[in-house]
Amino acid sequence: MASLMGEGRRPGEYASDIPHAMTANLAVSDREDCDRWGAGPPKWAVPFSCIVASRMVTEAAVLQALRAVHDPESQQDIVTLGLVRDIAITEGGVTFTLAFSTQAPAAKAALHGQATKAVRQLPGVSHVQATMGRAGAAPAAQTHGHQHGAGPAAAPQRPADLIPEVRHTIAVSSGKGGVGKSTVAVNLAVALKGSQGAVGIIDADVYGPDVPMMLGSKGRPGMFDNKIIPVESHGLKMMSIGLLVNEREPLVWRGPMIHSFIQQMLRDVMWGALDYLVFDMPPGTGDAQLSLSQVIPLSGVVMVTTPQDVALLDVRKAVAMFQRLNVPIIGVVENMSVFACPHCGERTAIFGEAGGQRIADEYGVPLLARIPLDPETRVGGDSGMPITLRRPASPQAAAFRDLAAAVSRRLDELAPLKSLPTIG
Q1: Claim: this prediction has a pTM higher than 0.85
Q2: Are the C-beta atoms of residues 230 and 256 closer than 8 Å to each other?
């Protein structure tokens, strides 16, 4: 009989198919029951309920995993330091808060990633959400964090509350890399500042953080009262991961890490009162773009494209994504629209013609500006002096000022429709 039952069984159906280490999270009584079954009938006959139980996660197991994560400054583990708070366990999921205090931004990001990875490796854990909080609440080891049948947890901080003194939040995005999105974002911010507004810019393109170079910023942000002081350049307040890491050091981050970084850039930075906060978004429509769109309370998004069909193919996907997220489309910028020869004045449409207008008409949004292609724009970005400042009388600078005016007008039109991004 035993041999018959042993034949034809499916892999993973009995306890012998489950690594012994997976029983480490079992409560004592559950382990005894499973051990009792294992001591009688053959190991493959252990009930499926014991296998399911072996995948359950306990708070003790989560804390034990987090003790392997050490703060680089104190060399103590994050549980002993009291940084771990509000552990909550659901079926297959674990959430907790890391209540940082004086850690540097780069250290916070590293600890967040290590903690998330340590918990995700526990048997039975399918997803982990670690949020960055502040010191002040009781540590997790002193609270009842399971929340199995417990009352509702405190409501998380809404994105709009993270930057209450910021009037308008503008994302500058593109479906495709290489269309000059960062150049547009930087010069738009400078032009908005020139209209007597208080302006900040967040370099959310963590894989290619070029904004510090384009604004000529090399210093590191300061700290005051556990808040990050943004770097100021050309009258703009600016934050970028490029200020915190070596310029040749790549960032190999998954979506949750980017999500946490953006939250920190909003919550932990002293932005103060701003008329406009511009976000230089990563290109594309991947996991990073989705996470960023959900955490940022956007007033709207400026879509950047070049005129050729290859760029238009990708920008359509990006527009569709933002529409699905209920983010208002401010309009389209056609970058590198035409090249005017500096010697003879002949105008050449190197990348095609009217592509930006076609996209704008297709989606019923304004064509905000057509930015000409000119070497001086590239020189301004490389030298840390944007063309809007370097050559204020140039046609390119005039185009960026027209763009800023069009964006401001469009925001006034969209103001009654403003809402937080949600997946529809």
Answers
A1: no
A2: no
